[in-house]
């Protein structure tokens, strides 16, 4: 069972504001899922490379540009909350 | 009934002027009005855009011009695929008012063919789930039994096609989200090879797993839609051009593999019986049946439920209350983040973000995420070995029949277990199709066909044979 403190820490890392009740709920649910995932430890993976992507391919680049949704543009800029 | 036509039939009817595109479109819009209050397959329907497009096709037909296969044919699009100037919610409060600024490549391709887009279909929030109950806008119901789920996450797309509200639909499949709802709703669903179809304009969930695929009434239709949307796209650097064109084979030379790990305890016996009967039909038609083993099958689901939330937690970091969607007020930036994400995301999305963040966090990365990626390699190797012996694998699509609304939603792990036969395919990037192979009472059962990379035409051809057996 993961601790309440661990759940709070993860929620903070993930920037999710959770209530005390939700912390308790996720503590139980995450613990049961992580117990299930323990099955992974039974697989022998010694000397096995990790796969991050099913196709092997090289980097393909394109131009990077901003596509705005319906949010208001002011003098060509997107208006957002102050972040500094 | 106009609404019951397949793509191929409707195309013929339009060409022979048995009915107009406007009549066909109106028939589907009427069907939606009659049926969708009880099914809730659609999140939005754009009647005027659909009718305007239908009139254009009728004008083309009136001048005697040739029309493409999908011209004038009604389509429904899962609401995580962007259509320019149309709301795209991903089934989430987070994107409740998000209007797409551009067309997904698949949508642009359908529009170019003259497709009639009726509307956007319901899904589990951000395509996370197996029943469409996780939509922030209410669940979709299975047209075969309104007390049961249509499967998920493309439950709205599958239900729309099954209830004749649309001729075909697009869905997305990250761990079975096209195939499993197709199975639950008694329609055909194709998950193409990873890279076969562009994902530009698909709201990213788990990027090493996601693929867009068609949901249709027949295998022939699945092939038509797949061919219309497939191909390399400069806007999606993970897309590739299929090198395999020739799918000609004779059934007497065909070797079918039955993975023994897919027929074990946990499968509904009535599903096992129907799937085995279907496989036996191929054997009778001359195919050679071989029992094979995919020894890492049991580890596939746990590997999937580490890799999927890890990628999701990274992809969904963009919803921060600043760049997109739902924004809560706060005294400082941290509070804006916490509140926007805490309130904007539903319970399953938050659960996956938490799981993924945990699996990727310092101290756990090697034990969970990295280990899952190594198991993924083993799963891919299992398939490679088996495909040296057989041409195709036949399995059930789902171990369970469509379940009741509310039956699994309170226990997340029980919902995850529904995906046991579909996730390996995504981990390995393979193409797979679900085909109706019978019913238990009113409830449809799907047969899953898994092929080698870029062998879509072979599994489609094999599925077409089944419809004639």
Automatic annotation (TrEMBL), chain A:
It comes from Candidatus Nealsonbacteria bacterium RIFCSPLOWO2_01_FULL_43_32. The gene is gatC. Its EC number is 6.3.5.-. One of its GO terms (molecular function) is glutaminyl-tRNA synthase (glutamine-hydrolyzing) activity. It catalyses: L-aspartyl-tRNA(Asn) + L-glutamine + ATP + H2O = L-asparaginyl-tRNA(Asn) + L-glutamate + ADP + phosphate + 2 H(+); L-glutamyl-tRNA(Gln) + L-glutamine + ATP + H2O = L-glutaminyl-tRNA(Gln) + L-glutamate + ADP + phosphate + H(+). HAMAP family: GatC. Gene3D superfamilies: Glu-tRNAGln amidotransferase C subunit, N-terminal domain. Heterotrimer of A, B and C subunits. This is Aspartyl/glutamyl-tRNA(Asn/Gln) amidotransferase subunit C. Allows the formation of correctly charged Asn-tRNA(Asn) or Gln-tRNA(Gln) through the transamidation of misacylated Asp-tRNA(Asn) or Glu-tRNA(Gln) in organisms which lack either or both of asparaginyl-tRNA or glutaminyl-tRNA synthetases. The reaction takes place in the presence of glutamine and ATP through an activated phospho-Asp-tRNA(Asn) or phospho-Glu-tRNA(Gln). Belongs to the GatC family. It holds the Pfam family GatC. It is an enzyme of class 6 (ligase). Keywords: ATP-binding, Ligase, Nucleotide-binding, Protein biosynthesis, Transferase. NCBIfam families: gatC. GO terms for biological process: regulation of translational fidelity; translation.
TrEMBL record, chain B:
The active site is at residues 78, 177. Keywords: ATP-binding, Ligase, Nucleotide-binding, Protein biosynthesis, Transferase. Signal peptide: none annotated. Its EC number is 6.3.5.7. One of its GO terms (biological process) is translation. Gene3D superfamilies: Amidase signature (AS) domain. It holds the Pfam family Amidase. The keyword RNA-binding does not apply. GO terms for cellular component: glutamyl-tRNA(Gln) amidotransferase complex. One of its GO terms (molecular function) is glutaminyl-tRNA synthase (glutamine-hydrolyzing) activity. Belongs to the amidase family. GatA subfamily. Heterotrimer of A, B and C subunits. This is Glutamyl-tRNA(Gln) amidotransferase subunit A. The lineage of its organism: Bacteria, Candidatus Nealsoniibacteriota.
